[in-house]
Amino acid sequence: MSQSPESTTIEVKGVGRTYVRGKSSVQALADVDLSIRQGEFVTLFGPSGCGKSTLLRLLAGLDQQTTGEISIFGATPKNASARKDIAWIPQSSALLPWLDIRSNAALSSVINKKADRKGTSTRRPEDATAILGEVGLADFLRSRPDELSGGMRQRASIARGFAQGAPVMLMDEPFSALDELTRDALRIRLLELWEHHKKTIVFVTHSAQEAVLLSDRVVVMSPRPGRISDVVSIDFPRPRGWELVETPEFTQKVADVKQVLWSAWKGDE
Ligand SMILES: Nc1ncnc2c1ncn2[C@@H]1O[C@H](COP(=O)(O)OP(=O)(O)OP(=O)(O)O)[C@@H](O)[C@H]1O
Ligand SMILES: [Mg+2]
PROSITE patterns given for it (predicted)? Predict the structure, then answer.
């Protein structure tokens, strides 16, 4: 699918990453090409070890690719990150234990304002309290992280990510440590936030159901070395809710995405 250059937020061209330790080396990623449009919800989906986190870390500027180029709004990931164009939401909540939830969520806004004054950020932080309300934590603003459940902590962490005002959000399996019911609720909550705040989201998962529910496109990856096997468009109308999951069309799409994954594995043998 052709895209107009101005709508492209993230451009990945010929990217590879080889880890070298002593005499051995692991090629974690090879020949990755991917364009992500502004406002898109894209999921990196694949089995353990196929390079999903490696690719996400490269996008975040937390690691450097061995080959190829990545641009985010025309800048390198490191520069995009310094300009506060990127918010990183980790697998576990990583909130500061001595601060209450409101201060935790507002913290990145404070940092962002400082960057703003130094001229390194053009992004406006959003109202942390309002976003905490959107994730259902309005009554817990003064609670510290250890006074909340795991699901509440992860909601606070997501709110903190959104409060940064960064247009690009990178999320590495943010729901994997949660129980199934909490995970289900948070998936829908995330969709609501994404629709309201109009972010570009790159989301890592190894759940086909999660990938199909959330995404505009699912990037199916295969291991040894990690490559993109295929990119599957998910055209279900939005807003999406649990009614969608009950439909035969949804079940079929999940099966299709898994099929792409298994065919890539068979080809690998
Ligand atoms: N810092 C590192 N040093 C050496 N090898 C690494 C490093 N990080 C990742 N790898 C290797 O790169 C490959 C891809 O790892 P990566 O963490 O990106 O996979 P993943 O798809 O995120 O897996 P999972 O679903 O288990 O999180 C693996 O073979 C892994 O062992
Ligand atoms: Mg990973």
Answer: ABC_TRANSPORTER_1, ABC_TRANSPORTER_2
Tell whether the model's pLDDT for residue 195 goes beyond 80.
yes
Domains and CATH numbers, the chain: 1-81+206-269 (3.40.50.300)
**Whether the predicted pLDDT of 90 surpasses 90:** no
**What is the distance between the alpha carbons of residues 88 and 265, in angstroms, rounded to a whole number?**
30
Separation of 51 CA from ligand 1 center, angstroms? 6
For the chain, how big is the Rg over CA atoms in Å? 19
pLDDT for res 93: 76
Nearest to 132 by CA among 148, 119, 112: 148
Q: Give the pLDDT score at 6.
A: 57
Full 3-state SS string of 38-101: CCCEEEEECCCCCCHHHHHHHHHCCCCCCEEEEEECCECHHHHHHCCCEEEECCCCCCCCCCCH
Pocket test for ligand 1, best of 26, 64, 203 (most atoms within 8 A of CB): 26
CA–CA separation, 83 vs 70, rounded Å?
A: 16
CB atoms within 10 A of CB 21: 7
Write the pLDDT tens digit of every residue in 175-185.
988 889 889 99
Q: Looking at ligand 1, which residue's alpha carbon is closest to its atom 31? A: 49
